[in-house]
Every structure is written in structure tokens, then in C-alpha cells.
Amino acid sequence: MQSIDNPTVESSSQKKEPERGAGETASGALRAWLDRRYQLTPLFDFLSHKQVPLGVHWMGWYYLGGITMFFFMVQVVTGVLLLMYYQPGEATAYESIHFLTTKVPFGWLIRSIHSWSAHLMIISLLLHMFSTMMLKAYRPPREVTWVSGYLLFLLTMGFGFSGYLLPWNKLAYFATTVGTNIVRSVPVLGNWLLEVLRGGQDVSINTLYRFFAAHVVILPLAFVAFIGLHLLLIQRQGMAPPLGEKVAPRGMRFFPSFALRDLLLWLACLMVLAALAVFLPYGPGIPGMDWELGDKADPLAPAYPGIKPEWYFLWEYQLLKEFPPHLFGLEGPQLCLFVIGILFVIWALIPWIDRRAYRDKPSPAFSDLGWAAILFLTYLTLMGWDVGAHHDAEQLTSMQEVARVCAWWTLAAGAVVILVRSWRFGHRWFILTGAALLQVILHGLIGVSYLLAGLISFVLAAIAILVLLYFRRSGADAAIST
Q1: Is residue 419 part of a domain?
Q2: 0.85 exceeded by pTM
Q3: What is the C-alpha separation between 383 and 408, in angstroms, rounded?
Q4: How far apart are CA 357 and CA 351, in angstroms?
Q5: Has residue 13 got a pLDDT over 70?
Q6: 368 domain-assigned
Q7: Which of 16, 123, 428, 469 is the most exposed, fewest CB within 10 Å of its CB?
Q8: What is the rounded radius of gyration, in angstroms, for the C-alpha atoms of the chain?
Q9: Which residue has the higher pLDDT, 346 or 244?
Q10: What is the per-residue pLDDT across 288-317, written as a single tens digit (0 to 9) for each?
Q11: Average pLDDT of 450-471?
Q12: Residue 460 covered by a domain
């Protein structure tokens, strides 16, 4: 029987730690110590063998997801620093931001970095989403990865909308009033949703409390959950190889080759972010990208003139303006929300709608759909920015001038897109891009109403697609019969 008083005797459940060898470095010993406890060797082996597929497309598209992740981490860090001083309340919200930017050392810089990183994150996220669309990286087995990324995009829009009100200044107050009024147009549930969103019938301090809770608790928790799912799916399935290749013909090691390049790109993004925050602390001063504090919100004051939402909501704002008050027995805003909802649903279901990509075949029609969507958003956003207005943008002559100038800019962009696609990639499908540009011509240059121009373009595009499908089927039947 062993004595418990004898210190030289160990029980069977106790094991001595292996001593470090004479030639073993401190880092190697630390890695071995961690590996014995957490079995990290399989993880290191996975990272060393995982490869990023290389193909005919530009490899830079693979870095956009990491850039978006970097800007989100900047948002978290700067958001926590801002939260140390921010006090939500009718008598404290504006005052705390004013104190932060004027009295706290480098407080203005933290707020500027937070604002700039929010906009840069949305830009990188949009580029990432459209590059995934063009490369058909949503094809099986990555459909759920696309949906999780799409939900992250919607949550990011929620971050932008909820954070806009927190400074409690005049511009944010009236912009939130206009933005939340759109919810009233939702059939049946509109008034109830408006009260849930605002905490009452009007934008008040209750609205600020709800937006604050959503911005710092609800949305971050949901975002972390979905980004965890998104990263898990990517690590499990890997990055999508080029279209038509089940296995990439060649690849780059994720670690250390790709990871180090990603890190260097993060450092470059940090330098750009710091430069923008220092030299343009309140944004470039254009509608939708201006976060100067201004005056405190006053619900009794007249509405703020020239209210514009953030730039990533401008297309919806402009589309609402193009709908008449009543159409087909329905309210114009209700019909507009229905159209926007349909567009969002179609975008989410693209992995299942694109049957050719589903079979790992080229799908030029959906590449054309992506470019048509970009031109559609470009035209509406430029008009929402009042590009080309020389006086009151609400006057009829000014609205026509804005539409004409924006049309020329969009047509120039469309011509470049078509030439590059045709010359560089050999694309021959331009039906949907042509329909988007036709609507721009009819509305901006000829003066046809936006909705009628869209209907004409949609009908002509549908006819062209049906005719093309008919001739292709006839050609296939003739080939079979011979």
C-alpha cells in the first residue's frame, strides 16, 4: 500500500510533464505544451494543407471577404471605445458625442475611424457579394454559404440604419423619421411595425433607446452568429474553384502564403482608413457620407431641408420617389416595397434559380443579371444624389436635368461594361444589361416615366429571351433528328 506522505510516490493518474530538450526553443516548447492539452496538431496540419484555388479569374476576389472581416473588427474595437463615453438619453446622447469629439483626447479620431470603417465595410461587402455572384461561387454545395453571407449583408444594413440616430442630431432625427415612415406602408402590419420600431407613433427618446439596444446588443449577437456560420462553412467546404473544375488545377497554400498576403492587405487597409479619418474626419461632405455633428435634434423644429439617407439606401429612396401616390388601386409606397421585397427574395434564391451553375456549367444570363443589377442601382443612386442639379432638385426642370445627366453617366458605365465583357471575357449575352440601359435611355433622355420605361424594357427583354430559347430549342431538335 502506497503512503500518501511519501512525496516521491505518484498515483497512476498523475503524469510528469516532459522536460524541454536541450535544443528545443521556447516557442517550440510552448507549442508542445499547448498541443498536449488541446491537440492543436490537426489544426496546424489542416491549415498547412488547405489551399486557395487559382484559376482564370483574378485572385484578388478571394481577399474581399477578409477585408470585410477586418473592417468589422475595427467597428467592434472603436465601437467599444465609443461606448465608454456614449450615454443614451434625451439630455445626454448629443452631449456625450459632443464631449467625446471636443474634449476627449483623440475622441474625434475614434469616431471618424468608426464612421469611415462602417462605409468601407459596406463597400467591401458589396464587392464581395457581386464578385461571388459573377464567379458563380454560390453553386453546390455552397448554397447555404451564399444565404449566410446575404443575411450578413442585411444585418450590416441594419447596423447602418440603427447607428445613424445615436448622435441624436437634427439630420439623424429627421432622416430616421423619413426612413421609419416607410414601414407604415407595409400592408396590415404597417402601423404595428412602426410602433414597435419607434416605441410609439413618433420618433422620440424611446426610439433612441431601441436603436441603441439593436445597434450594440441585438445586431452584434446576430452578426457574430452568422459570421461564425459563414466562416465555418467556408473552412469546411473551402473556397469555390473556378467554374467547371471539381478540383482546382492548382492552388496556393492558405497558411502561410495566403494568410500573410491577407495580413499585409489588412495593414494597407488600416493605412488608408487612418488617412481618411485624419484628413476627412467628417466624411467627404456628400449626401449619405457626412457625419458632422451639427445641431441637436429638436422634434418641434421644422423638417431638415434636403434630407438624404445613407448612400447605400439612396436607390430605395429614389425608387420610392418614382412611384406615384396611387397605382392599380394600391398605395404607391406599398407597391414599391413589394417590388423591393421581390428583388431581395430573387437575389437570395439565385443559387437555386441558376440551374446551369447548379450543374456546374457557365450561366451567362446570370452574369448579365448581375451587371444589369449594378447598372440599375447606379442610375437610381446617382439620381438620389441629385447629380447634375444646379438649383432646387424638386423642381421639374431640375429633376429632368438630373435624370439626363445621370442617364449619360450610367450609359457611359454600361458601354464600358459591355466592351470589357465582350473583349476581355468573350461574353455574348447582353439582353438584361441592354434592358437596364434601355430603361435609362427612355427615362433619362426621352422623358418616359420611370415605371413605364421599366415595363417596356422588361417586356422587350422577356420577348428576346423567349425568342432566343425558341431558336436554341429548334436547333437542338434539328440536331437530334439528323
Answers
A1: yes
A2: yes
A3: 12
A4: 8
A5: no
A6: yes
A7: 16
A8: 27
A9: 346
A10: 888 899 899 988 888 767 788 889 999 999
A11: 93
A12: yes
What's the domain range around 384?
A: 363-482
Number of domains the chain contains: 1
Cα–Cα dist 398/401, whole Å? 5
| Residue 259 CB partners (closer than 8 Å, separation 6+) | 47
256, three cell numbers: 502561410
**Residue 457 counted as domain residue:** yes
C-alpha cell at 4: 500518501
Burial 452-478 (b: 16+ CB within 10 A, else e): ebbebbeeebeeeeeeeeeeeeeeeee
Residue 309 contacts residue 317 (beta carbons within 8 Å): yes
The larger pLDDT score, comparing residue 190 to residue 74, is at 74
